[in-house]
Protein backbone atom coordinates (compact mmCIF):
# COMPACT_ATOMS: atom_id res chain seq x y z
CA UNK A 1 0.00 0.00 0.00
CA UNK A 2 1.04 3.60 -0.59
CA UNK A 3 -0.32 6.61 1.31
CA UNK A 4 0.51 10.11 0.07
CA UNK A 5 -0.20 12.93 2.52
CA UNK A 6 -0.46 16.50 1.29
CA UNK A 7 0.17 19.19 3.90
CA UNK A 8 1.49 22.71 4.27
CA UNK A 9 3.09 21.70 7.60
CA UNK A 10 5.03 18.49 6.86
CA UNK A 11 7.04 18.56 10.09
CA UNK A 12 3.87 17.84 12.05
CA UNK A 13 3.80 14.40 10.44
CA UNK A 14 7.41 13.36 11.00
CA UNK A 15 6.95 11.83 14.46
CA UNK A 16 3.84 9.64 13.94
CA UNK A 17 5.53 7.66 11.16
CA UNK A 18 9.00 7.50 12.70
CA UNK A 19 8.44 5.06 15.54
CA UNK A 20 6.77 1.85 16.66
CA UNK A 21 4.37 -0.10 14.42
CA UNK A 22 4.14 2.48 11.63
CA UNK A 23 7.92 2.71 11.33
CA UNK A 24 8.31 -1.07 11.23
CA UNK A 25 5.57 -1.40 8.62
CA UNK A 26 7.53 0.91 6.33
CA UNK A 27 10.82 -0.83 7.03
CA UNK A 28 9.23 -4.16 6.10
CA UNK A 29 8.08 -2.68 2.79
CA UNK A 30 4.43 -3.27 3.66
CA UNK A 31 3.49 0.39 3.20
CA UNK A 32 5.01 3.53 1.75
CA UNK A 33 4.07 6.81 3.40
CA UNK A 34 5.07 9.88 1.37
CA UNK A 35 4.58 13.36 2.81
CA UNK A 36 4.32 16.23 0.32
CA UNK A 37 4.90 19.87 1.25
CA UNK A 38 2.12 21.81 -0.45
CA UNK A 39 4.35 24.88 -0.62
CA UNK A 40 6.49 23.07 -3.19
CA UNK A 41 3.50 23.32 -5.55
CA UNK A 42 2.81 27.01 -5.05
CA UNK A 43 3.18 29.27 -8.08
CA UNK A 44 4.88 32.35 -6.64
CA UNK A 45 8.24 33.04 -5.00
CA UNK A 46 6.65 33.32 -1.57
CA UNK A 47 5.33 29.73 -1.87
CA UNK A 48 1.86 30.94 -0.95
CA UNK A 49 -0.82 28.30 -0.30
CA UNK A 50 -3.59 30.42 1.24
CA UNK A 51 -5.50 33.64 0.56
CA UNK A 52 -8.40 35.70 1.84
CA UNK A 53 -11.92 34.39 1.29
CA UNK A 54 -14.14 35.97 -1.33
CA UNK A 55 -17.07 37.62 0.41
CA UNK A 56 -15.08 38.42 3.53
CA UNK A 57 -14.94 36.70 6.87
CA UNK A 58 -12.21 35.85 9.34
CA UNK A 59 -9.45 33.39 8.51
CA UNK A 60 -7.57 32.31 5.42
CA UNK A 61 -8.52 29.68 2.84
CA UNK A 62 -6.22 27.13 1.19
CA UNK A 63 -5.93 27.91 -2.51
CA UNK A 64 -7.01 25.46 -5.20
CA UNK A 65 -4.01 25.85 -7.52
CA UNK A 66 -1.24 24.36 -5.33
CA UNK A 67 -3.54 21.50 -4.30
CA UNK A 68 -4.49 20.77 -7.90
CA UNK A 69 -0.83 20.91 -8.97
CA UNK A 70 0.16 18.38 -6.32
CA UNK A 71 -2.72 15.98 -6.92
CA UNK A 72 -2.25 16.17 -10.69
CA UNK A 73 1.43 15.30 -10.36
CA UNK A 74 0.72 12.35 -8.07
CA UNK A 75 -2.02 11.05 -10.38
CA UNK A 76 0.37 11.22 -13.32
CA UNK A 77 2.63 8.76 -11.50
CA UNK A 78 0.04 6.17 -10.40
CA UNK A 79 -3.66 5.56 -10.01
CA UNK A 80 -5.37 6.28 -6.70
CA UNK A 81 -8.30 4.43 -5.18
CA UNK A 82 -9.34 7.39 -3.01
CA UNK A 83 -8.38 11.05 -2.65
CA UNK A 84 -9.49 11.90 0.88
CA UNK A 85 -9.91 15.33 2.42
CA UNK A 86 -9.65 15.44 6.22
CA UNK A 87 -12.62 17.60 7.15
CA UNK A 88 -14.66 18.21 10.35
CA UNK A 89 -17.88 17.68 8.39
CA UNK A 90 -16.81 14.52 6.56
CA UNK A 91 -18.14 11.05 7.31
CA UNK A 92 -17.07 9.89 10.76
CA UNK A 93 -14.14 7.49 10.80
CA UNK A 94 -15.18 4.02 11.96
CA UNK A 95 -13.50 0.65 12.11
CA UNK A 96 -15.56 -0.36 9.10
CA UNK A 97 -14.12 2.52 7.05
CA UNK A 98 -10.61 1.64 8.20
CA UNK A 99 -11.23 -1.94 7.08
CA UNK A 100 -12.42 -0.73 3.68
CA UNK A 101 -9.42 1.54 3.17
CA UNK A 102 -6.98 -1.20 4.20
CA UNK A 103 -8.01 -3.12 1.08
CA UNK A 104 -7.02 -0.25 -1.22
CA UNK A 105 -3.68 0.07 -2.96
CA UNK A 106 -3.03 3.82 -3.18
CA UNK A 107 -4.52 6.64 -1.11
CA UNK A 108 -4.07 10.41 -0.97
CA UNK A 109 -4.87 12.24 2.27
CA UNK A 110 -5.25 16.01 1.98
CA UNK A 111 -4.79 17.96 5.21
CA UNK A 112 -6.90 21.06 5.58
CA UNK A 113 -5.72 24.14 7.45
CA UNK A 114 -6.87 27.64 8.33
CA UNK A 115 -10.59 27.93 7.40
CA UNK A 116 -10.38 24.94 5.07
CA UNK A 117 -9.88 24.54 1.33
CA UNK A 118 -11.40 26.32 -1.66
CA UNK A 119 -14.74 24.58 -2.17
CA UNK A 120 -13.79 23.72 -5.76
CA UNK A 121 -11.21 21.29 -4.35
CA UNK A 122 -14.00 19.40 -2.65
CA UNK A 123 -16.25 19.57 -5.68
CA UNK A 124 -13.77 18.45 -8.33
CA UNK A 125 -10.64 16.85 -6.85
CA UNK A 126 -11.73 14.87 -3.80
CA UNK A 127 -13.41 11.46 -3.83
CA UNK A 128 -14.12 11.15 -0.11
CA UNK A 129 -14.16 13.27 3.05
CA UNK A 130 -13.43 11.86 6.51
CA UNK A 131 -13.68 13.34 10.01
CA UNK A 132 -12.23 11.84 13.19
CA UNK A 133 -14.74 13.56 15.49
CA UNK A 134 -17.12 16.42 16.13
CA UNK A 135 -14.47 18.95 17.01
CA UNK A 136 -12.03 21.23 15.18
CA UNK A 137 -8.25 20.85 15.09
CA UNK A 138 -5.70 23.42 13.98
CA UNK A 139 -5.17 21.38 10.83
CA UNK A 140 -5.78 18.01 9.25
CA UNK A 141 -2.32 16.58 9.97
CA UNK A 142 -3.20 14.81 13.21
CA UNK A 143 -6.41 13.52 11.66
CA UNK A 144 -4.49 12.18 8.66
CA UNK A 145 -2.08 10.41 11.02
CA UNK A 146 -5.04 8.84 12.84
CA UNK A 147 -6.55 7.57 9.60
CA UNK A 148 -3.21 6.24 8.37
CA UNK A 149 -2.54 4.47 11.67
CA UNK A 150 -6.00 2.86 11.74
CA UNK A 151 -5.48 1.56 8.19
CA UNK A 152 -1.82 0.51 8.26
CA UNK A 153 -2.15 -1.67 11.37
CA UNK A 154 -4.71 -3.78 9.49
CA UNK A 155 -2.32 -4.68 6.65
CA UNK A 156 -1.16 -8.31 6.67
CA UNK A 157 2.21 -8.65 8.33
CA UNK A 158 2.17 -5.30 10.15
CA UNK A 159 1.25 -6.69 13.56
CA UNK A 160 3.39 -9.51 14.94
CA UNK A 161 0.22 -11.44 15.76
CA UNK A 162 -2.01 -11.08 12.71
CA UNK A 163 -5.06 -12.17 14.72
CA UNK A 164 -4.62 -9.23 17.09
CA UNK A 165 -6.45 -6.73 14.87
CA UNK A 166 -9.38 -9.11 14.57
CA UNK A 167 -10.04 -8.83 18.32
CA UNK A 168 -9.83 -5.04 18.44
CA UNK A 169 -12.71 -2.94 19.66
CA UNK A 170 -15.41 -2.33 17.02
CA UNK A 171 -14.33 -5.16 14.68
CA UNK A 172 -17.43 -7.12 15.70
CA UNK A 173 -19.54 -4.09 16.53
CA UNK A 174 -18.62 -4.28 20.23
CA UNK A 175 -15.93 -2.69 22.36
CA UNK A 176 -13.19 -5.02 23.58
CA UNK A 177 -13.55 -6.92 26.87
CA UNK A 178 -11.32 -6.26 29.90
CA UNK A 179 -7.79 -7.67 29.68
CA UNK A 180 -5.37 -8.73 32.42
CA UNK A 181 -1.77 -9.85 32.75
CA UNK A 182 0.61 -11.05 35.48
CA UNK A 183 0.57 -11.11 38.44
CA UNK A 184 -2.71 -12.98 38.88
CA UNK A 185 -3.22 -11.20 42.20
CA UNK A 186 -2.00 -7.72 43.13
CA UNK A 187 -2.88 -5.93 46.38
CA UNK A 188 -5.74 -8.38 46.75
CA UNK A 189 -7.09 -7.51 43.29
CA UNK A 190 -7.57 -10.79 41.44
CA UNK A 191 -7.81 -11.77 37.79
CA UNK A 192 -11.16 -13.49 37.05
CA UNK A 193 -10.79 -17.22 37.64
CA UNK A 194 -12.21 -18.14 34.25
CA UNK A 195 -9.23 -16.52 32.51
CA UNK A 196 -6.88 -18.79 34.47
CA UNK A 197 -8.91 -21.92 33.78
CA UNK A 198 -7.50 -22.76 30.35
CA UNK A 199 -11.05 -23.63 29.22
CA UNK A 200 -11.21 -21.94 25.81
CA UNK A 201 -14.97 -22.13 25.32
CA UNK A 202 -15.70 -20.66 28.74
CA UNK A 203 -13.08 -17.94 28.25
CA UNK A 204 -14.55 -16.97 24.86
CA UNK A 205 -18.04 -16.85 26.34
CA UNK A 206 -16.81 -14.67 29.21
CA UNK A 207 -15.10 -12.31 26.77
CA UNK A 208 -18.24 -12.01 24.66
CA UNK A 209 -20.45 -11.32 27.69
CA UNK A 210 -18.05 -8.70 29.03
CA UNK A 211 -17.80 -7.05 25.60
CA UNK A 212 -21.57 -6.89 25.37
CA UNK A 213 -21.88 -5.55 28.91
CA UNK A 214 -19.21 -2.90 28.38
CA UNK A 215 -20.77 -1.85 25.06
CA UNK A 216 -24.20 -1.47 26.67
CA UNK A 217 -22.73 0.64 29.46
CA UNK A 218 -20.26 2.77 27.52
CA UNK A 219 -21.22 2.81 23.83
CA UNK A 220 -24.88 1.75 23.58
CA UNK A 221 -25.21 3.43 20.19
CA UNK A 222 -23.09 0.67 18.67
CA UNK A 223 -25.72 -1.93 19.47
CA UNK A 224 -28.34 -0.03 17.50
CA UNK A 225 -26.12 -0.14 14.41
CA UNK A 226 -25.82 -3.95 14.35
Overview of the structural elements:
The chain is α/β, with parallel strands linked by helices. Helix content is 31%, strand content 19%. The strands form three sheets. A five-stranded parallel beta sheet has the order 2-1-6-5-7. A two-stranded antiparallel sheet has the order 3-4. The protein starts with a strand and ends with a helix.
Instruction: Report the sheet with the most strands, covering strand number, pairing sense and barrel closure.
Output: 5 strands, parallel
**Architecture of the largest domain in CATH?**
3-Layer(aba) Sandwich
Query: What is the total number of structural domains?
Result: 2
Structural class: alpha/beta
Mean pLDDT over the full residue set: 93
Oligomeric assembly: single chain
- What is the number of helical segments per DSSP (H or I, 4+ residues)? 7
Q: Which helices and strands occur, and which strands form pairs?
A:
Blueprint: E1 2-7, H1 20-27, E2 32-37, E3 50-52, E4 60-62, H2 64-77, E5 82-92, H3 95-102, E6 106-111, H4 119-124, E7 128-131, H5 141-152, E8 185-186, E9 189-190, H6 200-218, H7 221-224
Parallel strand pairs: 1-2, 1-6, 5-6, 5-7
Antiparallel strand pairs: 3-4, 8-9
Helix pairs in contact: 3-5
Please tag this protein with its features.
2 domains, Alpha/beta knot, alpha/beta, two-stranded antiparallel sheet, 226 residues, Trp Operon Repressor, Chain A, 5-stranded parallel β-sheet, single chain, elongated
How would you summarize this macromolecular structure in one to three sentences?
It contains seven helices and nine strands, in the order E-H-E-E-E-H-E-H-E-H-E-H-E-E-H-H. The protein has 226 residues and is of the alpha/beta class. The chain folds into two domains: 151 residues, 3-Layer(aba) Sandwich (Alpha/beta knot), CATH 3.40.1280; 56 residues, Orthogonal Bundle (Trp Operon Repressor, Chain A).
Amino acid sequence: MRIDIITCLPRLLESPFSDSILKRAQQKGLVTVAIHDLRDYATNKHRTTDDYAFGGGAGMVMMIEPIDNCITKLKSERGYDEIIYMSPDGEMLTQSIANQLSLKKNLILLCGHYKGVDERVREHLITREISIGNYVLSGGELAAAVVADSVIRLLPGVLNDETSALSDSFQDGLVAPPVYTRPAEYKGWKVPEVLLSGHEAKINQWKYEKSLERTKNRRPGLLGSN
